[in-house]
Amino acid sequence: MIRAEQNVDHYNLNTVYKFESFFDLSPDLLCIAGFDGYLKRVNPAVSKLLGYTNEELMSKPINEFVYLEDKSSTDSARNELRKRVSLFNFENRYVTKSGEIVWLLWTSLPIESDQLIYAIAKNITYKKQLEEQRNKHLAELTKINNDFKELTYTSAHDLRSPVNNLLSVFELLDVSKISDSETLEFISILKSTTEGLKETLNEYVALLNKNNEINEHLEELNLNESLNEVLLSINSLIQNSEATINVDFSSLEKINFNKAYLKSIFLNLITNSIKYAKTDCLPIISIYSNNNNGNKELIISDNGIGFDMDKVKDKIFGLHQKFSTNIDSQGIGLYLVYNHVTNLGGHIRVESEINKGAKFIITFKN
């Protein structure tokens, strides 16, 4: 009988020792608090983080250590604990002895018979800092995007007046008095290009006036027709560069998309291919569609100077990001293309090597 009692005592002592070791060595903050709002016991992790001695921590009400803005929510949480309601994933801020603010994530269990609360907390300060940085970056990106939309709207709106004036000149021009065939052809091309520019500007102004109603402007578009409108508007650029443009939309002739966005995608990617052509060979641009297991794709590739993808990485579609010394580069075209695609639920990726051209693969939302 005596031996049995000794075994029980030994077991109890061993259990207490293990509990004490767990309590003292845990990297998480372990606390025992009373229903009276005072700490009764804390492990070393609490003292280490907050910078107070155990005596200091237990000599004042817990709320004295809580950040001012979180005192009310902490009081409410403690009142729930007194009602035997366990607390999970409760976040609040504490102020350390040095004045630093730390975020803690609590799980607390009340024991009414003992008038005690057993609590464990994790330091989530770093996580909160990352969230704050992310939210700050998102706010900055949202502002940049809104500012850019406003600039685009203003520019498109203001450009309509000189374009309309130019079209008025064509109306006043008496071409019957012009006999030179080359001059007549030039006037015809210039008038057609100006009319195309007016249409594009009107589409942008109408689109941006709708703000968040972009999805209402989706329509079934013929890829070949949209491309031809763009090619006509930059016909002189294509001729001067002696670019070869290969087109094949046999796999996918039509898509549901926004007309102004699609024309902008064609315009920016084609003019970029011409702008960044290699000096030792003429530009060759391939434009084709693909229906890959239900994924509708538009692919535009060239034989230009290409990108060093290890260097540009995810910056390639950033606003004002320039990867060439070309004086005409503003770092806006690819930013526009990316936003046109992603705003309507699609995605775009790039395959490229230095001096081996670039391939842009656009996947449209199904």
UniProtKB/TrEMBL annotation:
Xref: InterPro entries: HATPase_C_sf, HATPase_dom, His_kinase_dom, HisK_dim/P_sf, PAS, PAS-like_dom_sf, PAS_fold_3, Sensor_kinase/Photoreceptor
Organism: Flavobacterium degerlachei
Coiled coil: 197-224
Entry's Gene Ontology molecular function annotations: phosphorelay sensor kinase activity
Keywords recorded for this protein, A-Z: Coiled coil, Kinase, Phosphoprotein, Transferase
Lineage: Bacteria, Pseudomonadati, Bacteroidota, Flavobacteriia, Flavobacteriales
CDD domains: PAS
Domain Histidine kinase: 154-366
PROSITE patterns noted in UniProt: HIS_KIN, PAS
Domain PAS span(s) in chain numbering: 36-72
Catalytic activity, EC: 2.7.13.3
Catalytic activity line of the entry: ATP + protein L-histidine = ADP + protein N-phospho-L-histidine
Pfam families xref list: HATPase_c, PAS_3
The UniProt record lists the keyword Cell membrane: no
Gene3D superfamilies (UniProt xref): 1.10.287.130, Histidine kinase-like ATPase, C-terminal domain, PAS domain
SMART domains xref list: HATPase_c (SM00387), PAS (SM00091)
Keyword Transferase: yes
Record's protein name: histidine kinase
Domain of life: Bacteria
